[in-house]
Amino acid sequence: MRINGIDLDPAKNPAVLDTYTWDQAAALRYCKAQEAFLEECAQATATAHCEGCLKSVLVGTQAVPASAAIKDGTAYFILNLEDGQKVLIAAAAKPVSPSTDVIGTLASGRVAVMPLNTDSVKRYITEIAPRYSPRAFGSVPRIGIGDRQTVTVWPGIIEALEVIGGPAETIQNSAYRELAPMDMILSPPSSEVTYLPGHGSLNIGHTGSSIQGFWLAGVTSHIENGVTQPYGADLDHVPVKSADENGLRKAKYLIDCGRHFTFFTLDTSALFDFSKSNLSERYDAAIEAGVELYNYIKSIKNGEAFDYEFSLDEGPGITEPDELRYVLDQLTKKGVTVNFIAPNVGFEKRLDYRLPDGMPGLEARVREMASIAADYGALLDFHSGSDKSSTTYRTISKACGGKLKLKVSGKLQLILSEVLADMDPDFFNEWWDYTLVSAKAEADAGSTVAAEYVKMVEERRRAEGAEFKRLPQDRFFTDFSFGMVGAKDEKGNFLYRDRFYSLKPDVQAEYTKRVRDYVVKLAEDLELSQGVN
Question: Is 470 found in the same domain as 386?
Fold first, then answer.
């Protein structure tokens, strides 16, 4: 289909649109072709006194058995269609009148076909099957798991959650790095870029997923995979680039796009002024922005619970105890309930802790910070949590008394690269080559990190000669590989994204297994696994 002059196949590009029913006329035609089956479902509702009975009717069909729910004598379930669309079906022994938009009715009105979109899914998880709704949990220890690969990574994450127990934020991406508003995703590449500290520039929304589409795809995936453990949805690193009306308006727009998320992480680091030693002068602009946005979230949630996190980790150095206490004290005095706060404890992306004070220094620092946070009812959240050793994870867990949160993101995308290197080397080699070009461009633009990593791989190439092999562990690749997935041409067409969502079944199965194993091990190292299964 064409949107804004962009050719897009939504079936091969999930988490872009805020609907799974992008051609309602075609969807109704497909449903009419299955009218006999849908009428059977309506008849079964009269005798299906439990959801298990309904599920037995759906097994082996294009319906999603895990989505089966019965409310006031009406059965609801998701139906997959031949063209990749999905719809929400309502069926009953009598004519149905669901409280949502209806594309059409079948079986003399006893079957209603509804679009599967943000509005209908929100109603489904609120009114019909609340067991599938993401929720806020307050200051409760857990992990947050980023989902750059959306529907291909969620099966492994959900399997892991069933092993370790919830809660966890299993829907999580950065609002203006990994995600972007849908209108921006469905546009030519923006001249605006964001920056990864110490590395260089990256395109906004570099995964190709929109904020709205990501929430919809995430919740739908949790329904389809039959999640039983509690989970949340984190709109991570909502940036506030300036304290003026324009900066706050942009942040509020991102929050509007993600209004159904249950967890909001505010990144006001652009407002920190480290030229000032006075803490008020250093942090007050950021604090005021954090207060205004907290109140804005509260207003649009309209009584619905949410979790709030204030991020300090993007600062240039380790957060000092007096800084942490000052920020928490000011936010609390201004009426903000801070569930989590993310200080800079010396973690670096994709590197283990390497400061000279070692584990004893890290443990002492974290213990003091955790005590300060506890004074305000908050827990520490550790960002840049990927690629740390088991010793590091156990150290911070011990220092926090097991009461902590840790976020990972990039590692789960890198696991895909490792699977592809093993099972689809041609695709991996193409990804590797694309990334090397990107890293060289960042080096030419002044990134010393990119220049160092490019030099490392070129030296390895010269040393190994004919034996040289592209590796997913090459440092330039681990740090710059994210750009290919959502890359666009000048008109805004995705160049490669559909290929990342067309994995061979054996590749998908192995990716699911490795993601599950990684998340389970992470939770065990952090002593956050409840071992429910």
Answer: no
The answer to whether position 150 is within a domain reads yes
Which of 91, 117, 143 lies at the terminal end of a domain, its last residue? Answer: 117
Q: Strand 231-239 relative to strand 209-210: parallel, antiparallel, unpaired?
A: unpaired
3-state per-residue secondary structure call for 204-259 = CCCCCEEHHHHHHHHHHHHHHCCCCCCEEEEEEEEECCCCCHHHHHHHHHHHHHCC
Number of domains in the chain: 3
Q: Are 39 and 197 in contact (CB under 8 A)?
A: no
Which residues, at least 6 apart from 57, have a Cβ–Cβ distance to it below 8 Å? 40, 41, 44, 48
Q: For Cα atoms 157, 163, 166, give the angle at the middle one, nearest 5 degrees.
A: 75
Tell me which amino acid residue 469 is: K
The residues with which 209 forms a beta bridge, in sequence order, are 179
What's CA 262's distance to the chain center, in Å? 12
In this prediction, residue 459 has a pLDDT band, given cuts at 50, 70 and 90, of very high
Q: Which of 440, 427, 407 is nearest to 485 (CA)?
A: 427
The pLDDT of residue 199 is 61
- In SS3 terms, 15-62 reads as CCCCECCCCHHHHHHHHHHCHHHHHHHHHHHCCCCCHHHHHHHHCCCC
Alpha helices per DSSP H over 318-446 = 321-333, 358-375, 390-399, 410-423, 425-444
User: Angle formed by the axes of helices 425-444 and 448-464, to 10°?
Assistant: 130
- Residue indicated by tokens 């929720």: 135
* Residue 193 pLDDT class (50, 70, 90 cuts): confident
Q: pLDDT tens for residues 207-261?
A: 999 999 999 999 999 999 999 999 999 999 999 999 999 999 999 999 999 999 9
Element (H, E) at 116: none
User: What does the block give as tokens for 358?
Assistant: 């070692």
Please give the pLDDT value at position 197. Answer: 59
Q: What is the pTM assigned to this prediction? A: 0.97
